[in-house]
Amino acid sequence: MSTFMIRGIPVSFPFEPYPCQKVYMEKVIQALQEKQNALLESPTGTGKTLCLLCSTLAWRESLVEEQNKLIEANLEEKGEIPEATAIPKIIYASRTHSQLTQVVKELKNTNYKIKTSILGARSQMCLHPTVSTVKGKMQDVLCRSLVSTHKCTYYNNVQSSKADSVFTNTLMDIEDMRVAGTQNHVCPYYLSRELQSSADIIFMPYNYLIDPEIRKTLNVSLKDAVLIFDEAHNLEGICGDAASFELTAQDISSCIKDAQKAVDIAMKPGYSGGPTSDDLAKLKALLMKFESTIESYPLADGGFTREGRFIYEIFAKINITFETKDLIIDLIDDVVKLLNGDEVLVGTHTAPSLDVFNTAIKFLFKKPLEEEHSSQYYKVHIHLDKEEKQKGK
């Protein structure tokens, strides 16, 4: 290990750094000390990740040492502990989980012993024998159902495991979390979310940080945090994805089938407590009208693009507006619960595609998207599905 001073801060590095690496780390520390944004670039193969980690952690370590000295001085002079200043968390974001795995591997080669948390998707971290075999939105709905009813034994062990040194004192990537979760019969997905509150550095993919809904769901706070975007040239596309939604013909068709399933359930003897059969029939009719509305547009030359406000015209044709959207959202939420509960009971373990449609409505009918905002910053594109093109449709 090599230790050297940069801007008054001792930096520990796994080997003697090259001149370009020292310059890079100096700029990182300068940005942190002066509380500035920094856009830094270095050629491939120059160890940017290692430089980012070591310089940032060295700066953070210096803050901890300064605070400890202040506490000791106050104890000696006044016999009291001063109010501690919050030490910034570091949020390290990269494009993919595989890139984050490499980042954790680099961190393991340093002298910095810190508490970490790595946030991943259910699809990568779930250990439940049934939920882990389900894909997409269906997996999310089934997981939430089992968690809310305390039927997932992996989740039930999260609170008792979050202080375990196996998880708090060990640097782990997602695969490490899965292995430790299996050995200790605890859910790595929910445990990683609990660990972030005490973590010095949190690793996550870009979209977890950029998408406000995901950030809210994962309880990620940006207050007083240091944000690092590795491979930041990918950010523009990620931001576009976070500010968009897509509904396919297959999604709409599946929604209609889900609505029919709900109607069938409501017609069973002894059904009570959920949406009425009339409401469910109206929902199915609404979805069928939505499907026919989309199909009514001519799609020559692959489709067409309109201003953002056009999407509101489409939804207005099926009577979904800012005034009615809450009724539709609540109804679909009730139907999702109804179908999920019924399917869990019968053991098919599938979840309704209606959740996809509802997510689109919730995204679309947010106040910032209406009127001038939607036309200025958004476009609507309707085109043939690739599968339909191949069929000659």
Tell me what the structure shows.
With 393 residues, the chain is an alpha/beta fold. The protein contains 20 helices and eight strands. It has helices at residues 19-33, 48-78, 97-108, 122-125, 136-148, 153-156, 158-161, 165-168, 174-184, 188-195, 206-210, 212-217, 235-242, 249-266, 277-295, 310-316, 325-346, 354-364, 371-377, 386-390, and strands at residues 2-6, 9-13, 90-94, 116-118, 201-205, 226-229, 303-307, 379-383. The chain has a four-stranded parallel sheet. The chain has a two-stranded antiparallel ribbon with strand order 1-2. Helix 1 packs across helix 2 (48-78), helix 14 (249-266) packs antiparallel against helix 15 (277-295) and helix 14 packs across helix 17 (325-346). The chain is globular. The N and C termini lie far apart (64 Å). The model is unreliable at 343-349 and 389-393 (pLDDT under 50).
In summary, what is this structure?
The chain has 393 residues and is an alpha/beta fold. Helices cover 54% and strands 9% of the residues.
Counting helices, strands and paired strands, the structural category is alpha/beta
- Quote the beta fraction: 5-15%
Number of strands: 8
Main sheet?
4 strands, parallel
Keywords:
393 residues, alpha/beta, two-stranded antiparallel sheet, 8 strands, 54% helix
SSE topology sketch:
Layout (H helix, E strand, L loop, with lengths): L1 E5 L2 E5 L5 H15 L14 H31 L11 E5 L2 H12 L7 E3 L3 H4 L10 H13 L4 H4 L1 H4 L3 H4 L5 H11 L3 H8 L5 E5 H5 L1 H6 L8 E4 L5 H8 L6 H18 L10 H19 L7 E5 L2 H7 L8 H22 L7 H11 L6 H7 L1 E5 L2 H5 L3
Parallel strand pairs: 3-5, 3-6, 4-5
Antiparallel strand pairs: 1-2, 7-8
Helix pairs in contact: 1-2, 14-15, 14-17, 17-18
